[in-house]
Amino acid sequence: MSYYFCIFNSRDQPTFELEFGTSKQGGDGVPRFTQEARNLNPFIMHASLDYVDELQWHTNQMYLKRIDHFASSHISAFLTPTSTRFLLLHLPHPPNTDPVPPPQTSTSYSPYGPYTNSFPGTTALSSLSSSTTSSSRSSLASVSGGGNSIANNPTSPQTEEAIRLFFTEVFECWLKAVMSPFGGPQEKIESPVFRTRVVAAGKKYL
Predict the structure, then answer these.
(1) Partner residues linked to 77 by β-bridges
(2) What is the DSSP string of 89-106?
(3) Is residue 191 pLDDT above 50, yes or no?
(4) DSSP secondary structure code for residue 92 in this structure
(5) Which helix H or strand E contains 14, and what residues bound it?
(6) Sheet with strand 2-8: strands edge to edge
(7) Strand 73-79 and strand 85-91: pairing?
(8) What is the rounded distance in angstroms from the CA atom of residue 134 to the CA atom of residue 177?
(9) For the chain, which terminal residue's Cβ has fewer other Cβ atoms within 10 angstroms, N or C?
(10) Which secondary-structure segment (H or E) carries 87?
């Protein structure tokens, strides 16, 4: 499974992007997106934001689960109380597929336009951090037994639970990053510490 993780602020601007591969079932953690898929992924993510904007009014949950798919790619979402969106694109790939190296030059993608949303409730924020440690330990035990499903099946319950745990851990790291006096929820996250923690969360759960 190859993953493309992106954080969007309330203006639909990407503030953080990361590609990584599965670490389950002997995975090496290297993404295996083709160059065509790499070029298309940001557009798929932006299109999925419309579904997040619609779903936020019909649930009080922060984890929205799998919200969209395009061809073989599936997109899961997590919505923060500040209307920052975490999107994870996961793409199954055939076993023993050789990784495709990323381009030498990075490309920045412009948002389609400003967008402002509000979160219907913030009660989940205070309770999320206190319950994360105990729930993560018990959930991780069940997820670790379904490594094969995580690596190959993007719609399995084990994959859904693993993505939830990934989002929850990244959310806690994101809170610390945006509370820094040198940044904010609308600013790009360029902290190498944050990137390292996101990579570690991906290896831990996905």
Answers:
(1) 65, 87
(2) EEE---TTPPPPPPPSS-
(3) yes
(4) -
(5) strand 14-21
(6) 14-21, 2-8, 85-91, 73-79, 63-70
(7) antiparallel
(8) 23
(9) N
(10) strand 85-91
N-terminal to C-terminal alpha carbon distance within the chain: 9
Query: Are 206 and 22 contacting, i.e. CB atoms less than 8 angstroms apart?
Result: yes
What is the rounded CA–CA span in Å between residue 45 and residue 9?
13
Q: Are strands 85-91 and 2-8 parallel, antiparallel or unpaired?
A: antiparallel
Asked which of 13-22, 93-102, 112-121, 140-149 is least confident by mean pLDDT, the reply is: 112-121
CB 86, CB 52: distance < 8 Å: no
4-16: pLDDT as tens digits: 999 999 999 999 9
- The whole-angstrom separation of Cα 23 and Cα 108 is 27
Do residues 158 and 152 lie in contact, with contact meaning Cβ atoms separated by under 8 Å? no
Tokens at 152, concatenated: 């190959």
Q: CB burial class (10 A; 0-12, 13-18, 19+) of residue 178?
A: buried
Bigger pLDDT: 155 vs 168: 168
Q: Structure tokens of 106?
A: 């990075």
Average pLDDT over the chain, rounded to whole?
Answer: 78
DSSP state of 27: -
